[in-house]
Every structure is written in structure tokens, then in C-alpha cells.
Amino acid sequence: MRGKQLYVPYMQLKLYDTATRKKRVFEPINPARISLYVCGPTVYGPAHIGNARPAIVFDVLARLLRHLYPPPESQLIYARNITDLDDKINKKAADEGVAIEVITARYRAQYHADMTALGVLRPDIEPHATAHIADMVAMIEQLMASGHAYEAEGHVLFDVAQDPQYGSLSGRKGKDMLAGARVEPAPFKRNAADFILWKPSSDDLPGWPSPWGRGRPGWHIECSAMAKKHLGETIDIHGGGLDLQFPHHENECAQSRCAHNVPLARFWLHNGLLTMSGDKMSKSQGNIKLVTELLDEAPGEAIRLALLQTHYRRPLDFTPDLVSQSVKNLDRLYGLLRDKTEFVPAKVEVPQQFMAALCDDLNTPEALAALFVLAKQADTPQGKGALLAAGKMLGLLQQEPENWFAGDTSSAQTAEIESLIAERARARAAKNYARADEMRDKLAAMGVAIEDVGEQTNWRRMR
Q1: Which pLDDT tens digit goes with each residue over 407-459?
Q2: Is residue 148 a contact partner of residue 163, using CB atoms and an 8 Å limit?
Q3: How would DSSP label each residue in 342-358?
Q4: How are the residues of the chain apportioned to helix, strand and coil, as percentages rounded to the nearest 5?
Q5: Three-state DSSP class for 21?
Q6: The pTM is what?
């Protein structure tokens, strides 16, 4: 970039930084190469709706950053990792009598399919933990050399007492650090809050050679090593769910800071957690809803809209009514687009009011309010283009209206539906209203609702 003026976005972006506990103006380290790292799934089972929220939130952020910092002047590098090394994966593989790769390949593929159905774009980089063992070992060696880690009984642990800033991300001090940390009691620890960087593996568990013997990395070192490998020692934005703030992100902060003498990230973003109809999501209570189950009940775009109706930092109560209302809202928006077929959408900039909401810490409720205002103005080529441009920023309204209303209807079913609608039209023209009502009843029995708009009859799948 020497000799070339750095790109400055046309609208200021403000993001709430968990570390400083305030909303700050986002200024990238290098506007030519913006870095975003988000903690991805641990692939030992199907994704639930709580896993989908960060994927959608940071998908919107990535879309916004690419819009504000477009190529060729800028480039966003978005990395979302796959944790394919974990004790839960080991247990699942042992229970099924297969290699861990069988488990991780199965659920990685399902995660990709689920996120695609929710309109989540793939990240630029998707690093896998098992492909970065050497990077993790190298970082642990740095921590050992600097006196921030120690070896004990085949384990290597991070010494929290050697990091004066430990606890700064979460704001936890003293005994508070142990709450929720899933601390395993171990007599070889110097401090109860010390966390594992490397642990030994028995012959029946996955393991790799290291200076401390055959073993495998701890969870926290995985993300630090992968972020450094692909994005650098200090990245612009690190994101994830609020449940990861402590201990995972706190530990990431500490080990990266102590290994490289620079902060891991300039901004930390955390999305709020979900409840299910007022209750905390819990497998033991049986109120975990899988994405695949929800996709059997509602379109992916409606589920996405439901998750965007609350500000990302706030808790969200996920209810059937929230999804059904999202379906109705999309019916309305797609209905407007379908009814304005005489207008070819013009290529226009995303409207300022909509962008202002998104640039205010991803205020999606305000952005959606602006979207519905734009919908009322979609009776011109410019108005229709503005609605579609705004929708694209949220990952909405990007399919043809006919496809939205048809749902998963097959081509054969579509032909049958259109044949019944044509028969009904002929019956009405002949004033054979009994026959027309018969056709309507047949369509209703097939789960199809119809609406007469002038001389045209529109149809949609009942949801």
C-alpha cells in the first residue's frame, strides 16, 4: 500500500467491543486486508439453533464489511474454524467403533448443509484443528520459553499467575474465574485456573508426537494457533457466542498475548444466547431444537429472519410464534416483489437509513424496520432495486418470489397445481362456481393456498 491512499468507507461502522465494554468506531489495522475470525462448530453432532445464531450474525457482519471495504482496494479475510479434535468426538467415535474422521466428516457435511439452508455464506478460510497441530506445538514452545507455561506429568499448562492481564476480557477476578470454567481438578496444577495446552494420549486416543510425548492439544490453543497462522498475530475482529467469552476466549487472549507480546484482536464481538420458549436450552431438559428439525417445519430464510429480529448482543427467546411471524413477513415481502413484475429492479446503492442501522453495531431490528419502509416504496424500478439491495445485506429476498411461495414443491407437483388453477379459471369463466370451489378444495387438500389478484391467481404452500 506504499504510495497509495488507503481506502476509507463511505459510512462509519461502530461495533461494541466486549474487551473495552463500549461501542467503538471500527478502524482496521490495514484497510487493504481486514481480518475476521469466528469460532466455528465442534463436529460431533448435528447443529442446534443456538449454533446457528453466531453463524448468521457474523455472516451479516462479513457482508457488511465487504460492502464497506470492497475490492479491489480492500479484501476481507473471514476465517471460521472447524473443531475436529475434541473429547466428545473421541467418545462418539468409540461408541460407534469408527475413526474420528468418520464422525467429523459426517457432521461437518451436515453443518455445511444446514448453514447453506439458512443463507449463510461459506467463510474464506475454514481451518481444521487436526491440520494445525504443528502450529499449536510451536506456540506452546513459545509459551514454555517465555515462562508462561510449564510441564507437569506429561501435561503442559498455561500459568495464569504469569499473565497480569488474565481476566481482562471477561472481567472476572479470583474465584470468579473458576465458575463455569469446567475446571478439572488436578494435583499437578500450580493454580486451579491454569488450563491445559497439551495433554497425553493413550494408545486408544488420537495423538501426535511432541516435545512432551505423544498427545493432543487443549481446546483453547487450537483457535489461537489457527488465527495466527491464517490472519496474523493481531486480527481486527474475533467473534463468537457469549458462552465462549469465558473461559475459551479469555484463554485465547492470554496465550496469544503472552506468546506474541501483542493483543490477539482489536475488537471482540459476542452474540447473546438463546432460550426456547422462555427456558434455557438444555439437552437434559430436551428443549434443544436441531436446525434440521426446524428446516422440516419452516423455510431456512424464515428461521434466519427470526434470528435477526433481536439485536445480536441481546438474549433471544426462540418460539414457534417467532418463526411463524417471520414466514408471514416474508410472504408479505415476496408478495410485493411478485406483484411488481412490471418493474425491473434498478441497480442502486443500499439506502442510507438502512445502512446507518447496520453500521450502528449491527442493529438488525432497526435495519429490518427500514427494510419494511423500503417495501412500501417498491413500486418503481429504483424502489424495487433498493429493497433487494438492502435485503441482500441481511441475506434475505434473494430468491425468485415464485420459488419462495412454492417451497419444496417438485416440478411434477407444480404442474399439477397449475393445472388445477387453470381448470378453476375455466370454471369461473363459465360461471360454474361449484366446479371452481371443487378445484380450490383440491388445492387446499394439497396444502396450497390461492389468492386472486385481478385476472391473475397466485398460489403458495401453506406453512
Answers
A1: 876 666 677 787 888 779 788 878 887 887 888 887 888 778 887 866 678 87
A2: yes
A3: TSPPP--PPPHHHHHHH
A4: 45, 15, 40
A5: coil
A6: 0.89
Q: What single-letter DSSP state applies at residue 105?
A: H
Q: Which neighbouring-strand residues pair with 199?
A: 216
Residues 44-78 have pLDDT tens digits of: 999 999 999 999 999 999 999 999 999 998 999 99
458/398 Cα distance (integer angstroms): 19
Q: What is the DSSP letter of 227?
A: H
Contacts of 185 (CB under 8 A, 6+ apart): 192
Amino acid at 59: D
48 SS3 class: strand
CA distances from 451 to 216, 323, 335 (A): 61, 23, 11
User: What are the strands, taking DSSP E only, across 218-264?
Assistant: 235-241
The strand pairing partners of 457, in sequence order, are: 452
SS3 of residue 70 by DSSP:
coil
The answer to whether the beta carbons of residues 125 and 78 sit under 8 Å apart is: yes
CA distance 46 to 192: 33
Q: Are strands 14-17 and 22-25 parallel, antiparallel or unpaired?
A: antiparallel
Q: Which residue has the cell 475488537?
A: 267
**φ and ψ at 209, to 5 degrees?**
-70, 150
Sequence-distant (≥ 6) Cβ neighbours of residue 5 within 8 angstroms: none
The three three-digit cell numbers of residue 352, written as one number = 442510507
- Residue 213: strand, helix, or coil: coil
Distance (Å, rounded) from C-alpha 157 to C-alpha 199? 9
DSSP state letters, 383-416: HHHHHHHHHHHHT-S-S-HHHHHHTT--HHHHHH
The alpha carbon dihedral of 267, 15, 62, 54 has a sign of positive
Backbone angle region of 431, left / alpha / beta, with phi > 0 → left and psi within -120 to 50 → alpha: left
Start-to-end Cα distance in the chain: 53
CA separation for the pair 303, 295 (Å, rounded): 8
Q: Tell me phi and psi for residue 217, to 5 degrees.
A: -75, 160
Return the bridge partners of 83, or none: 42
- Is there a contact between 119 and 300 (Cβ–Cβ < 8 Å)? yes
- The 8-class DSSP code of residue 185 comes to P
H/E element, 110: helix 100-117
* Nearest residue to 140 (alpha-carbon basis) of 160, 165, 127, 157: 157
Put residue 159 in one of left, alpha, beta given phi > 0 → left and psi -120 to 50 → alpha.
beta
Cell readout for 52 is 446457528
CA 252 from centre of chain: 20
